[in-house]
Structure formats: structure tokens, C-alpha cells
Amino acid sequence: GLGSVAAVRAAAPGVVGMAPSMVQAKEGLEAWLFANLYRHHLVNRVFHKARRILGDLFVFYTAHPDSLPPEHGRRAEGLGLHRAVADYIAGMTDRFAMEEHRELFGHGVG
């Protein structure tokens, strides 16, 4: 029998899986989510706006590392500039990133 997680992982493919009805339900849900949520035109607009903001911030801070907060500038010495900038941006809230972009570039995006 399959009495442990290790036994399940070691089992041949197909021994453990979802019932065909569950596979069909999962595929239907995934198709609906992609059509109505993940790829919805309004979601895509927000995605592209966010991508532009984050990209602009990354380019700016890698070109002007002296504009990073001091602790992130020091991190760049050990981690490298690109990693330190990526970590700094990753720690931003959406609102802060948008405000920072507006302050640095003088306009909104989108």
C-alpha cells in the first residue's frame, strides 16, 4: 500500500491522481479563469502599467544607484547592484511604487 508520502512519490505514474470528472472540472475552471480573469482586457491593462512602472524604476535605480536609500546602496556592495535594486523594488507596496514613479518621472503611467 501507499502508507506514506514517500511511497506516493515513489509510486509509478498514474497510481495516484484525480478522478476523470475532477480533471474535467479543473480544466473547465482553468479555461474560465484564463478567459474571464487572467487574460481579461482590464487585467492586462493593469499588468502592462505595472510592468512599465517597475521597469522604469529598475532602469532608473541601476543608472543612479546614489538615489537608492543608504541601506540598499550598502547592500549593492555585497549582492551586486541589480540584485539590490530588484530587492528594493520588490519590497515596495503598489502605492509606493506608483508614487515613486510619479516623483521621479513627473507623470503618471496609463
Task: Give a brief description.
The protein is an all-alpha fold. It has helices at 5-10, 20-38, 41-63, 70-79, 81-90, 94-105.
What's the number of helices?
A: 6
Net shape: flat
The secondary-structure class comes to mainly alpha
Mean pLDDT: 92
How many beta-strand segments? 0
Distance between the termini: 58 Å
pLDDT below 50 for ≥5 consecutive residues: which ranges? Answer: none
Give the ordered list of helices and strands: HHHHHH
Gyration radius, in Å: 22 Å
Helix content: over 70%
Question: How would a textbook summarize the main sheet?
Answer: none
The fraction of residues assigned to DSSP E strands is under 5%
How would you characterize the overall build of this protein?
- The chain has about 110 residues and is mostly helical.
- It has a domain at about 45-110.
- Helices cover about 75% and strands about 0% of the residues.
- It is built from six helices and no strands.
- The protein has helices spanning about 5-10, 20-40, 40-65, 70-80, 80-90, 95-105.
- The model has no long low-confidence stretch (mean pLDDT about 90).
